[in-house]
Specification:
Blueprint (H helix, E strand, L loop, with lengths): L8 E5 L3 H13 L3 E5 L2 H11 L3 E5 L7 H10 L8 E5 L4 H9 L4 E4 L4 H34 L5 E4 L4 E4 L1 H6 L4 H4 L2 H7 L6 H7 L1
Parallel strand pairs: 1-2, 1-3, 3-4, 4-5
Antiparallel strand pairs: 6-7
Helix pairs in contact: 1-5, 2-3
């Protein structure tokens, strides 16, 4: 995903030509690059070609409906963190719940408030960018720890939860099944002469 929201590429998948036209116009006015598909099959093909940063997806379409398209996008390349906003005229709770169950990021009902749509798209893109930055930072940290042969662990006393990095497990010849959890696992990894001081501090 690109860092600059104004460079984002959006894909609209909707069989309603008027909705596609108005949505594309509203989003292009906001500086986005917009691609359009009039059915689920075309949308899936176009997704592979244009690699959009966000998909606007209608729920009710002939052929492959929006629920199925959403599920396939999630299972496909780059699909895990792809922002997907579903568009529908359906107001019932079951349709909304199913959309989220299939992997929708957000949900907008028709008739669409175009100003709200522009703001919602920017918000979802910004959130996705922040998540991507976090994942990249975690990858950089993991690589630095691996190269420097440094492991790390964190103990959260409030929930007695102990977490450690993969590098830590590798360095000390442990795995998640032998690592243990909580207070006892923390104390057992401290130099024996210092364990009394640690217990007092805890």
């Amino acid at each position: 995903m690109r860092d600059m929201l104004d460079d984002a590429r959006l894909l609209i998948i909707d069989d309603d030509a008027l909705t596609r036209l108005l949505a594309a116009e509203a989003l292009r006015e906001s500086g986005f690059t917009v691609f359009e598909a009039d059915c689920g099959e075309e949308g899936l093909r176009m997704y592979c070609n244009v690699e959009p940063d966000l998909v606007l997806l209608d729920v009710m379409m002939p052929g492959i409906d929006g629920f199925e398209v959403c599920r396939r996008l999630r299972e496909g390349p780059r699909g895990e963190r792809l922002p997907i906003i579903m568009l529908t005229g359906l107001e019932d709770t079951s349709s909304i719940e199913r959309a989220y169950d299939e992997g929708a990021t957000d949900f907008i009902s028709k008739p669409i408030n175009w100003t709200l749509l522009r703001h919602r798209v920017r918000y979802v893109l910004r959130s996705a960018n922040l998540l991507d930055e976090l994942v990249r930072s975690e990858d950089v940290l993991a690589n630095a720890q691996r190269i420097g042969r440094m492991g790390s662990w964190e103990w959260r006393p409030d929930g007695d939860l102990l977490q450690c990095s993969d590098t830590y497990l590798t360095l000390f010849g442990e795995d998640v099944t032998t690592f243990g959890d909580g207070h006892d696992a923390v104390v057992s990894r401290v130099y024996p002469a210092d364990r009394g001081l640690l217990r007092e501090a805890l």
